[in-house]
Amino acid sequence: xxxxxxxxxxxxxxxxxxxxxxxxxxxxxxxxxxxxxxxxxxxxxxxxxxxxxxxxxxxxxxxxxxxxxxxxxxxxxxxxxxxxxxxxxxxxxxxxxxxxxxxxxxxxxxxxxxxxxxxxxx
Length: 122
Ligand SMILES: NC(=O)c1ccc[n+]([C@@H]2O[C@H](COP(=O)([O-])OP(=O)(O)OC[C@H]3O[C@@H](n4cnc5c(N)ncnc54)[C@H](O)[C@@H]3O)[C@@H](O)[C@H]2O)c1
Fold this sequence. Notes:
By secondary structure, the chain is α/β, with parallel strands linked by helices. It has a single domain (about 5-115), classed as 3-Layer(aba) Sandwich (Rossmann fold), CATH 3.40.50.720. The chain is built from five helices and four strands; from the N terminus they run αβαβαβαβα. It has helices spanning about 5, 25-35, 45-60, 75-85, 110-115, and strands spanning about 15-20, 40-45, 65, 90-95. It has a four-stranded parallel beta sheet with strand order 3-2-1-4, with helices on both faces. The chain is globular and about 45 Å long. The site of nicotinamide-adenine-dinucleotide has 19 residues, from α2.
């Protein structure tokens, strides 16, 4: 199987990945950097995002991060502004921030339910 970096050429492209500090989002960040894109990693977990950004930079990739909670419009605007200031453009947006809650919905508090994206449809 071909790696992304062999199949895609994203040199000169600027991307933004929300939820990019962990899991699938981080995998997408890695794939995009390997394909040559600059990546603005956006995540609410600033500690993890900074660590992953530093490790990718050490490996020679072009990555920055913006600490943002994508539920907040102002944070999203700040992330886009930081990306525009750093890279001057945005070609690719991967909106992957999310949470996965493994719990019966009736055992979750309303606050937890509303924060997790889980909804009762009845
Ligand atoms: N892992 C799977 O097998 C799988 C499969 C299908 C769908 N998903 C969905 O994909 C999404 C990510 O899953 P994952 O396994 O990569 O999770 P993960 O927890 O490893 O990564 C999620 C990232 O999103 C960030 N994040 C969460 N809420 C945020 C917010 N409000 N603002 C900014 N960043 C935020 C977290 O800090 C974390 O870095 C989830 O919505 C999950 O339900 C996951």
